Each structure stands twice: as structure tokens, then as C-alpha cells.
Amino acid sequence: MPVTKQTYTAAPTWTAADLATIYRSAFIDAGLMTDWHDSFASSGIENRVLRVQYDVSKTYGTTFYWFQFSTTGAFLHVATGWNTSTDVPTGTQYLDFFSTTTNATSNHWQFSGTLSATTAADLIRYSSGSHHWFVSRQGTTRQAFTIQPASHTLQSWINLDRGFYSGFAGVFTQSSSQSSPLTFTRGPALRRDIVVGPSLNGSTTAANYSSSSATLALLAYAAPGHVSNTYTGNIQNITGATTGTGTSSGARCGAIVLPVGFSSSNPAYTTNSIPVFHSMPFTPYSTTTLNSDFGITFHYATNVFGFQDKFIVTAGTEEWETLAFSNASVGDGTTPSVAFLARVV
Q1: Which of 8, 56, 115, 223 has the most crowded CB, counting CB atoms within 10 A?
Q2: Backbone phi, then psi, for 219, in 5-degree steps?
Q3: How many other CB atoms sit within 10 Å of the CB of residue 1?
Q4: Which residues pair with 299 in a beta bridge?
């Protein structure tokens, strides 16, 4: 079954509340919530809290996704507890929340990129089964992300009595002559986080908790380039970040090389094979794999990807739409462009 696709638009000149409204509608339609767990304004900043209960029997089985909206974009942090009477996170600072500031966005991560209220801002939802991917878009500023619902099963070795789990994941893409990796990354973190908690031990610096360069690469997939005699080992040494298609000095992650087949490098292939890969893990912390209607592909031709371009396997039978991508700088058909796709036909 193809994905269900819906676009939510904040029309210019939109307000922070208008931006919050399109996220509310998208999250409700995705089944992530029936309404915000908390909703309030503080000095022009619209604060909204999404509660996801991964395992209510555990001490830290609930994750609170604390969104802030302004006329420059959407921001995010996480907390292990939340007081709806006082409108602040609960627990111990740095372990359970980073800051209680509600009237400024400086302690949150601007995952949407910088937006302008004078131009329409879109949030596009792609849904299939329990999987929902969203794309925040304004012009060429885009970020694809997901928040795992409570129905997704975590690995049995995760102990939510000792730490909490953030199911936020973003998509970061790169392209080079050695490889073209697509990296699934996580968002802002706390010391209580089962994934990156120890690396924050002792830190009180905001950037270590909420900047794009502090995000962690969860899993990466790559395809080899076919430029003659250029291999330098970089395919296992890629950067991971969540800031669109630019470069970053974020956390490093070894890539899983996917089996694309080319006669130039493997004579067993008489016809070049560029499949759409799907149903693979996108985070090592969940047993729920990527839905079959979301996939990754690589493209070695000289033409390039554009946002929401169609990648057609069989016209009218199997067609995919581009959510995130990075185009090869070498336009000779030997360096792969990479794209994250949603099946629309």
C-alpha cells in the first residue's frame, strides 16, 4: 500500500501559534496524540508538549517531546517528566531536562532550520501503518524526521527503569566519489538518555545537549562510487548530522554498504541494478524496522534529484517520492546521488 500524504501549511504572514497548529494537526492525524499534553505561550514563544508512553510500567518509560515555536522556526528538546500545573519539566537538571526556560528558544534545537513568517511554511506527513515521516519545508530549507510511536517495540536489553528513550530520528545525506551515505540520526539528548547519556557526564553546556553538531548517528547506509582508483577508506568514516544536505562535523558512524550492482565494478552484473532498499532497521534501539513504503536508493546517472521528484521503478505500478536527498557533485554517472523515498504508487 502506498503512503498517505498530507500537507499542512502555515500561510504568510503566519504566527508562532499558526506554526504550532500545523504540527498539532499532523501529529493528531498520525495518531501520535489526541492533543498536546501541555500547551501555553511564554513571551511570544509557543510551547507545546507531546507525550509518548513507551512503557508506563517503567520509571522512565514516558518521553516528553518539548516543542517551541516562534516566527523563525520549530525547536525541540526532551524531558523525562512534565508538570502541567507549572508548565515546566520535572526531575534533576541535565539528567531529566536541560532547562526550564519557556520564554526563549536558545536551549532548544532548531530542527526545522531557519524559517521566515513572510513565506508559507509546510509540514508534510507521509504515513504508512505505524510509520510516520514528516518533512518541515520552506523553499530549499527542509528536514525529514520521525517520532516513533508507543507501538514500536524497543530492544529487550533496554532498561527504562534506568534511562529514557527518545524516538526522534532525522535524515542526513551526503554524496562523494567514495560513497554516498544516508544517515539516520537522533535529536537532542540528556544524561538520562540510554543512548548518549555517558557522553554528557559533567557537561552543563547548552550546545552539548541541543545543537545539531551534538546529534548522534544511529545507523548509516551507503553505496560505493565507481570513480576509478579513488577509494580511500572513507566509506566507513562518514559524518552524521541533522541539518539538511550540508556538511557537518557531527558524530561519526560506520556505514552499512548496500548491494547496488554495476558491471563496471562487478562483471556478474550484465545490467546495472539500482533497487529501492526498504524494510531495514533505522535505529538499533528498536526491533521495529523501516516500513516497506519508505526506502533508500542511489542514482548514478548525470541527472539529479529534486524534492518530491518521482523515482519510477515501474510507471503506474511502483513509484516513489523524494523526501531527502544529496546530489553527486560529479555529474559523470560514477558518483551516486542518494535519496530517502516514500512510495506513492
Answers
A1: 223
A2: -145, 145
A3: 9
A4: 337
**Strands (DSSP E) found in 100-222:** 121-128, 131-138, 141-147, 168-173, 182-185, 217-222
What are 103-117's pLDDT values in tens digits?
999 999 999 999 999
Q: Residues 112, 122: contact at Cβ < 8 Å?
A: no
Cell of 248: 557537518
Q: Judge contact between 307 and 325, C-beta under 8 A.
A: yes
The Cα–Cα gap between 73 and 148 comes to: 22
Cis peptide before 183 (omega within 30 of 0): no
* Pair 123, 28: CB distance under 8 Å: no
Residue type, 221: Y
Q: How far is CA 147 from CA 168, 248, 323, in A?
A: 4, 23, 16
In the chain, which residues have pLDDT < 50?
Answer: 231-252
| Residue of 51, 96, 56 whose CA lies nearest to 197 | 96
